[in-house]
Amino acid sequence: MQHIKSQIRDIPDFPSPGILFKDLTPVIADPASLRRITTKLAEPFRQAGVTAVAGMEARGFIFGTLVAQELDVGFIPLRKPGKLPADTHTVAYELEYGATALEMHTDALAKNDHVLLIDDVLATGGTAAASCELVRKSGAAIAGCGFVIELDFLNGRKQLMPDTVHSLIHF
Asked: String of b and e for 59-76 (b: at least 16 CB within 10 Å)?
């Protein structure tokens, strides 16, 4: 993971002043790093009975679809409001710089599904907690949450308790 960590670049004041953004686009551009991340994100969940992977817009789509393929299960997109064409469940939540919501098709999951949530970064945990709530609205269970990066100093993991959290790189 040290090589992958060295590929992550810091972008100051993005998306707003005072935020130090961890940019994963150099990692995504490297096929060997992308394969390693996919394998390592999936690894602890191979025997967890995962029936679907869900990822939130937008970078969760990248890593989530690859992990779904690795686990041989389907992918469920969690999108910004108004982007999905059929009936949706919606969960509104607060960000450190505003409020937003996520949606998922109402027929995307069933009560017997065990869903692995995948995203690029765990920061304050608001988006991930809202994603878990969205999955649970369908009656499905959370098998765990996986992240490429966790910003430990923001304590986002606490928002996800008691769910299993697996992060590859810590800052």
From this structure: bbbbbbbbbbebbebebb
